UniProtKB/TrEMBL annotation:
Gene3D superfamilies: 3.30.70.270, PAS domain (3.30.450.20)
Residue span(s) of domain GGDEF: 196-332
EC number(s) reported in the record: 2.7.7.65
Protein name in the entry: diguanylate cyclase
Reactions this protein catalyses: 2 GTP = 3',3'-c-di-GMP + 2 diphosphate
GO biological process: cell adhesion involved in single-species biofilm formation; negative regulation of bacterial-type flagellum-dependent cell motility
Origin superkingdom: Bacteria
GO terms assigned for molecular function: diguanylate cyclase activity
Residue ranges of domain PAC in the record: 105-157
CDD domains xrefs: GGDEF, PAS
């Protein structure tokens, strides 16, 4: 167990004024007991002389864990060199600073094994000082925390996966409404700062209720997933695709003017038509089509992002009122 009792025990056993080969006769029995206790635990005790920066002692358990014999641990340089390069600078700087300040501390790092692998260690360090308060030695324990780190990494991975799922639409795997709100807010703030154009495209699958009524909801779900895939094919790097709700999708196009936004919308509309998804109840060639509302703005204090979404949504309804399978657009980027 990692606690202050361990380091106190190490400090008592590895006293700075009592070398291991010269323990006074009245402490011989206690020293033997402490050695037995320390060397029978899985924790690895050690001692470093502060003035020489040499190991005065390191437990034999180190060889079983890392493969390096105790005799190979000469100085702190051996300790530093047997540390993962990505951990070395930060851990060494931290431990040196804490030790100079006379503060007990802990550090986690990956230690190199003799066969080239790495083991996660936690060093618990106790600073031994003389009567004047000067640092004389460092004593402590190394603990193998590989299993703990593995568990922490698994938990972190699961948390990341859960977070990703919380931002994904469960059916189509594109961004959900929550992610759309975050993406729009982020791009709105960025465009507001740079005075650049921001475009939004709202998409509604035409006659989707009739599609569901005719083909059933299972086939309707398959249609939504296919349309999401098609829309993804029409995007550029940096564009956002999300499901707005039901059969509606939305694109956020950062740093995109009105003409470029229309090209993206037209490309997506053509891709959906070219997919030839059968829709017997549609009056348009009996295939799935979609209506598009497009809006472009240079964000200002005159209109917030919610108002902008409402403007684009109105354009989507204009497209549906004008016969569907078309695009209606509004350009607010030139309004001052």
């Amino acid at each position: 167990m990692i606690n202050e009792d361990n380091t106190a025990l190490a400090a008592q056993f590895l006293r700075h004024d009592a070398p291991l080969d010269a323990i006074s006769s009245d402490l011989q029995h206690d020293g033997a007991v402490y050695r037995t206790l320390l060397e029978s635990t899985r924790a690895i005790p050690w001692k470093i002389d502060w003035h020489t920066m040499e190991f005065a002692y390191i437990g034999p358990q180190i060889e079983a864990l890392l493969g390096w014999p105790p005799s190979s641990w000469k100085t702190v340089q051996d300790w530093a060199e047997r540390m993962h390069p990505d951990d070395r600078a930060q851990v060494v700087d931290f431990c040196v600073a804490q030790s100079k300040a006379g503060a007990d501390h802990e550090a986690d790092y990956r230690a190199l094994t003799s066969d080239g692998g790495y083991v996660w260690l936690r060093d618990v360090v106790h600073v031994v000082r003389d009567e004047a308060g000067e640092v004389q030695a460092l004593v402590g324990f190394m603990f193998d925390i590989s299993e703990r780190k593995k568990t922490e990494e698994q938990v972190a991975r699961l948390q990341r996966e859960l977070e990703e799922l919380s931002f994904k639409d469960g059916l189509t795997s594109v961004g959900n409404r929550r992610m759309f709100d975050i993406a729009l807010a982020r791009e709105w703030d960025a465009a507001l700062k740079t005075r650049s154009a921001l475009s939004l495209v709202m998409i509604d699958i035409d006659f989707f209720k009739s599609y569901n009524d005719y083909y059933g909801h299972v086939q309707g779900d398959a249609c939504l997933k296919r349309v999401a895939e098609i829309l993804g094919e029409g995007l550029r790097s940096g564009d956002f695709l999300g499901r707005f709700g039901g059969e509606e999708f939305v694109l956020v196009l950062p740093d995109t003017g009105a003409d470029a936004a229309m090209r993206v919308a037209e490309r997506c509309r053509n891709l959906i038509g070219a997919a030839q998804i059968a829709h017997e109840r549609s009056p348009y060639r009996q295939v799935v089509t979609a209506s598009f509302g497009v809006g472009t703005i240079v964000p200002s204090e005159d209109l917030d992002s919610t108002g902008f979404v409402n403007l684009v949504d109105a354009q989507l309804y204009n497209a549906k009122d004008n016969g569907r399978d078309c695009i209606a657009a509004i350009d607010r980027s030139r309004v001052r």
